[in-house]
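Methods — Computational structure assignment.
A single polypeptide chain was analysed. Its primary sequence is given first, followed by the predicted tertiary structure written as C-alpha cells.
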Amino acid sequence: MQAATVSTSGATKQLRTRRSMRRLLHNLPSRLMLITFSLIFFTPFYWMVVTALKDSAELAKFPPTMLPQTLHWENFAAAVDYFPFVRFMLNTLLITLGAMIGSVISNPLIAYGFSRIQWRFRDSIFYLVIATIFIPFPVIMVALFDIFASLGWVNTFLPLIVPAFFGNATYIFILRQFMLQIPQEISDAARIDGASELRILFSIILPLITPAITVVAIFSFVGTWNDFLSPLIYLQEEALYTLSIGLQYFRSTHSVQFNLLMAASTLTVLPVVILFLVFQRFFIEGVVVTAASK
C-alpha cells in the first residue's frame, strides 16, 4: 500500500514537471521577446548611469569601457553645483505637482458626466473631446501663447498648471472606461436614497476607481516632469527654468562635462523611476482594466 502511494506521488510529480516544461516552452518565445525589448529600452539608461560614474579621462578612451574602472560618486554632488540644479528641481516639482493635482481634480468630474449621467448629445460631445487627441500641440501653440500673453501669464508657471484643471482627453477616456465597468444600478440606488451626483461621485465612484486615478496621476506627473516645449515657450527667465530646459541651456552655453551632465540627467530621471516602482501595481492594474474595457 505504501509502495503504491509512493508510486502515485512520483507519477504526480512527473506529470507536474512535464506540464511546467510544456508551459515554459510555450511561453519561451514571448518571454525572450520581452527580455530583448527590455534590454533595448534599458540600454540608454544604463549608459547614462555608467557615464555619470566615470571621470573625464576615462570618457576620452576609445573604445569606451562598459563599466567604470573607478566609481566616481562625487560626480553627482558636482553635478548639483554644476548649474542651479536645486532651483530648477524646485521649479519642476512645483509645476508638476500643480498639474497633477489639477488632473486628479478635473478629469474624474468630466469623466463622471460622460459615463454616469444621461444627457442629450453626451456621446457626440465625448467623441468630439476624444478627437482633440489627434490635434498636434504645434498647431495650437501660437493661439495658446496669444491667449496666455493677453492674460499676462507669460513668464509665469500659470500656463503650465492652469490648463490641467480643465481636463485632458486621454485622462478623460481612461477614467470613463473605468466608470463604465461599475454597474449603473449602484448609482441609481444612491439617487433613490437622495444622494446628489457629487455625493455619488466622491462617496461611491472615486473609491472604486482608485487604480485609474493613480494611472492619471502617474501619466500627468511623468508628462509634466519631462515636458520641454511648453516651458521653453512660456518661461523666459533663467530663475524660472525647469530641469529639462536647464540641462539643455547649460549644455549650449557652457563647456560640456558629459559625466556631470549625465549625473544631472540621472538625478532628473530618478524621481520618475521611483514613482513607477512605488505605484507599479496600480499602474499595471489601471492599464489592464482600461485595455479590457475597450
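Note: The chain is about 75% helix and 0% strand.
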